[in-house]
């Protein structure tokens, strides 16, 4: 799943529980539930080929920029800012831990990290290229519900 729905769902979970610690923990859990949902991401179109890293990196930049812009607008003056931010960080956490190269490389020798990375990889349910519309639709629904909730609870 791309970052934007992970961030929005995590923020909504944080607001719903109203506690930064539980927001982070449940946001972290929501990441895996989101990944189990059929979704579209850069690997849907570009696979995991090392020679296509530029295309995947462009995808990441667009997603990251849009996520920062959307979440900044939504959370700028939210009454439950701290739980929302911690929930958002929890929602993004597994991808930040496993996908940032310098961090993943540092953690690789640590006990449990390989198992965590394998679990995270197992939870992914990326749609094949032929079904990319289904993968986009599931993310739009998750994003829409989360944004509506965040706007409703202001």
Distance between the termini: 26 Å
Specify the structural class: mainly alpha
Q: Which value, in Å, is the CA radius of gyration?
A: 15 Å
If helices are DSSP runs of H or I spanning 4 or more residues, what is the number of helices? 8
Percent helix, as a range, is over 70%
Question: How much strand?
Answer: under 5%
* Quaternary assembly: single chain
Short description:
The chain has helices at residues 3-17, 20-36, 42-46, 53-75, 81-99, 101-107, 113-123, 132-152. By secondary structure, the chain is mainly α.
Describe this structure in words.
This protein is mainly α and 154 residues long. 77% of the residues lie in helices and 0% in strands. The protein contains 8 helices and no strands. The chain has helices at residues 3-17, 20-36, 42-46, 53-75, 81-99, 101-107, 113-123, 132-152. Helix 1 runs antiparallel to helix 2, helix 1 (3-17) packs parallel to helix 4 (53-75) and helix 1 (3-17) packs antiparallel against helix 5 (81-99). The chain is globular and about 45 Å long. The relative contact order is 0.23. The mean pLDDT is 89.
């Amino acid at each position: 799943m791309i970052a934007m729905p992970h961030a929005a769902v995590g923020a909504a979970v944080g607001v719903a529980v109203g506690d930064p610690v539980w927001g982070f923990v449940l946001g972290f859990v929501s990441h895996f539930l989101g990944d189990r949902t059929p979704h579209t991401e850069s690997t849907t179109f570009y696979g995991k080929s090392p020679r296509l890293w530029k295309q995947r990196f462009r995808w990441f930049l667009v997603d990251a920029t849009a996520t920062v812009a959307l979440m900044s607008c939504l959370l700028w003056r939210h009454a439950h800012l701290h739980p929302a931010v911690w929930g958002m960080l929890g929602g993004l956490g597994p991808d930040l831990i496993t996908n940032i190269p310098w961090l993943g490389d540092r953690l690789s020798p640590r006990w449990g990290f390989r198992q965590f990375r394998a679990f995270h990889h197992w939870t992914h349910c990326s749609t094949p290229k032929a079904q990319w519309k289904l993968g986009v639709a599931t993310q739009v629904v998750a994003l829409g519900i989360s944004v509506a909730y965040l706007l409703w609870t202001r």
